[in-house]
Structure formats: structure tokens, C-alpha cells
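Give me C-alpha cells for this 254-residue protein.
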Amino acid sequence: MSRYQFSEAVTKAELERWGIFTTLGVRNHKQEHLAHQGSQEFMNDMATVLGGNVRWKACSQIAGHLMALSVPECLPDRLGLISGITDMTFLIDDIFENTTDSQRGTLEGSEEFQSVLERKGLPRNALGMFPQLKDQFMEYVTARDPSLASWMSQEVKRVATAPPRDRMNYDTIESYMELRLQDVAMKWYYELCAYGMGLELNETEKEQASRPARAMEKAIIYTNDFYSWAKEKAEQASVAASKDMFNAVAILMK
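Here you go.
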């Protein structure tokens, strides 16, 4: 009996067509359409706040739907929900990637940022709509799984009340990495994957799973910081000179 219930192997020919994962054994959810459906439902729901024809397709890529690929053994009745939640996460991340700290204090941001919004079918003042988006998003999740919505609300509050990272000491790469690992959304992602697959891990199992995950997280952080260093360096030049860069490249160059 196969240990896989909901997924199937992606053929070598398909991997070569994508041009990625060519040396890995990749599986995809047999009901990938549920992931696309979940993303579309999320977009339709957000359109009640944003208006217009939202074309945000963060999880729908050339290699298929991200969540169908990354959580191929997700329970079918949860695949759509975790897809919509992940779309929201990428939407927030994309806005922050395309604005500086000072621009986030305004409703419109830069002209470049407004162009990014428009290409995705979002209104130019989408940044100012964050409070409404957040409320609508929580209603979206609550209507589908109240217990998951409750956990997410508590997690958001925990992050919101955490000490500002730029006031902390991260003079060494080791201390920086510890802070950065708290800063990224990997814990959120792991919990979402576990929820999708119906897994309930005890503390011992979570600790065992965290060991290989920690090495993967560090690789992701180094890669992300390397490619974002130029943008962050330019942003630093436009603010007070005392502002530290929260970036591994800057730490290693000291």
C-alpha cells in the first residue's frame, strides 16, 4: 500500500519543462484544482474591499499551484483554505517588498509601488486599506474554520507586541540569525502545513522536525538577504545614518 494518499509523482518530462526541481522527486496534489479554486475564492473575497478585478496570482505559477506542490498530502477539504491564506501572506509581503519604511506611512506610497498595485489589479490606495483587508481576511478564515482563525488572531497579536527588532543587539551573525529566524513567517508556514495535513505534533516531535528545518531556514534567509541587500542599502542611505541594516550581508561585511 502506498504511503501517499492524495498526491502523485510529477514526471521527469514535466520537471524539465518547468526547468526547476530537476534533481528532486516532486509530488503534486491529485486535486490541484481545489488549490486554484481556493485562491480564486480568496481573490473574490478581497475584491469586496479592494474593488475591481483583482489579478493577484501569487500561488499560481508555471509549475502549478504552490500549495499543491509544497503540501501534496494536504487533506482535500483544507487545500483551498491554506491556498487562500498563503495568497494573503504573499500579498502582504509583496507590498512590503515594494515600499520603504517611510512610504508605508502614507496611503499611496511611491509611483513605482502604485504601478505594481495596478498591474495586479489592485487600487492605488491599497496600502491604506490594510485595516479593512485584515478584517475581511479574518472573516474569510472564520467562515471556513473558526478554530484556525482563533489561532491566527492570537499569532498576529503575538507578533504585533514583539519588541521592535531594530532596538535589539545583533552585532554577530549568530545573534542576527536567531532574531531573523523569529522574524520570518516559517513558524506560521509550518503550522499551516500541519493544519492542512491534519497533523497534531507533540513537543518532542516538533523539536525533532525543527532540526533539519532550521538548516533549511538559514539557507532561505541567506539567499533572501543576498538578493535584497542592494534595495535595503539604498533605503538605508535615505534615512538616518544610525539606522542599522537588518541583513546578513551587512553583518558579514563588518
